[in-house]
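Support request, please re-run this one:
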Amino acid sequence: MAPSTHTRRNLLLGVVLGLLALVAGVTLAETFLPEWQAGAPPDPAPLRQRFRELAARGGFVLEAGEPHAILVTRGPEQFEPFRPLGDLGTDWLLATRTAIRATVSHAVRDPEGQPATLAIDFSFDGQPQLLMSWRREPASMFTLVDAQKAVHSAEVLAPLLLAPGETLGPKRQAMIITFPRLLYPIAGGQRPQYLIALMTQGAFLERRAGPLTRASGGEADAYVALIALAFWRTFPVFLALAGLFLVLLLKARLSLLNGALLAVAALLTLYPAPGFFNSPLVYNLLFAFVIALKIFLVWSCGESLLRSTDPGFTTSLDALRAGRLGPRGGRALLVGFACGAGLAGLRLGLLALTEVVPGVWLGRASMSLPLLRPFGSPVADGILLAGAVTLAIALAVRLVPLRWAPATAAVLAGLYLRPVPVEPFLASVAVNTLFAGLLVWIGRRNGLTALLIAALCSLTLPSAILAADYLAWMPAGFALTAGLPAAFILLGLVGMARSGAAEEKRLAPPAFVRRIEEERRFHHEMDLLAKMQRGLLPRTLPRLEGYELAARSIIANEAGGDLYDVLSDDQGYVWIAAGDVAGHGYSCAIAQAMTKSALASLVGRGRTPAEVLHRVDRVLRAAGPTRAFTTLLLLRLNPATGEGLLSNAGHPYPLLMTGGGVEEIEISALPLGQGPPREYEDRRIVLPPGASLVACSDGLFEAVDGDEVAYGFERLLATLRGADGRSAEKILETLLEDWRRHLRTAQPLDDTTVLILRRSPGREER
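Re-run finished. Output below.
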């Protein structure tokens, strides 16, 4: 069914409102955020020449080719220089024009003649800010750094980062683990700064904001720990994801296709921009593979948990993947774009507020440059954000009551995810919980496709706008981040214009979902069978003058076939039946119902129990061949005298309790419904005052405890002897209590039924 004009109008209005929110956010960003006010970048040609000069002064020999130049922003893991300044960081970045830097890098031979890579960051004023070098064939992690040689190298390289008129003050030296760390105050500059040098198998030197104080060394050391901290923060989460994935895999409850396709899509954007660190290819591939693997695990686990929790769960991602784009998928794309544009504007607005609210500051740049990196891109980050929110929703739905699930998912995502880089911690949690909560709402209301598109657009749209300002530096990044949202709009409009017939055809769900549906259907049917079985048992036992009746049927894990009944005929006899249909399921329930119906129609009319059993056997055989057989114990009792006729078709022997003793009433015969035709015999019994007749199904004495020890017939007899003289109800309770005590925590594997008929004692015995 095609969407109405009203629906189309609402969707287009949503897109317009989302774009207006984006414009408002970009306006705030250009007013307050440093990287949005960085201004025009320098010409790459002079920077390359400056790079060559500094490399030569440092003793590096450039290999053939042209140095690469890209734009970068520095985050905490790259030792950003303005973080200690807090609220003053933006002013420092704008004054030094270092909110965005130009990195020039190239393959070199280091002063020792080893193949290495050299990278130098320049401010937009052309002033060198950071120098890194590392060998392309690094030594073993267990190789110790020659401290004296490393310090000498730092003393040679440190002056390369000085501006004209600046000098280095006395150095402060310390050892961090096995490598030296040096600090130099910078004198003669326009504002207080110092220089830090970390000398490992390569070199890292950077200008820092602020005066060199006693605390500066500790702050510098803290930066060194950021990479390790980021690793140890991610590592346990990665292990938890892998563990959850393994559990779902072992349970065969995994939907992998969407997660795999999204991981591949992200992987295609995870390549280094030209010259980005000039890292060895294997390292870049490793970074990209880890990010793609994380996306695969997060998305597969989240989607699979949702599919296994909700039997009616569907996602238009399946239709999109199958090429069945229709109104539902088109609506999801347009809603996702509109919400993503609004979220992008909200994110930029929240970051801009850090420049207004005291005590709150940026944790890192609002946009990470270059856009396409081995360890991140707007596309990969957006997919990962959507997958993490999906997993948070799935976990919350399973862990807490449904009404609390959205709020719990928002808090979980807000605590771990940091799409809005705000500091300090409490401000970060509050802001990111709000942002994640909106994504949770989008996913719960509009589905996974809308959630995915919203997360992608919230990161790609601002990236495209910023990349447009530096189009000559990042044409590929602009093409990707602008083209993807445009494609979402186009596909959404196409889907809205198409008929919904193809999309309405249900796509085959994953195999594990079909299996879960079959299991749910099976359990539902078994519940119905169990209810039907309980319905076939008497709700209340009739009152017999001078007698007590007590019965209990305990159903095991599936619908079984135990039965009992108490009937009367027009001759004044009372008929008491106890039986067991072998097996479980439909055939068992049908045989049970047929047995009950046959008894109700056959008792009386002058027949004996043996004659009734013979006719019931014929009824069951007439129903057709079956593997099930039925045991049945049938008593015809004269209530006035206590005399009765007893016949048995393969049921466990009944027990007669009299005068403190317990004896079996042996009547051998084959069960009903199977085998050659057979005859049944009647046996006369007398139930004297105070005596009890006990009928048990085999589930009672065959039940085993955790050590595989059966309850057994001897324990049954001993328990009954101890209960002699009690009422029928007390005998039943005593027996079942002892039976449960034997089982402990074990569950019975078969149904268990006990029926007790006790003749009230005469006056002389009271």
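The chain is about 50% helix and 15% strand. Residues 274-278 have pLDDT under 50 and may be disordered.
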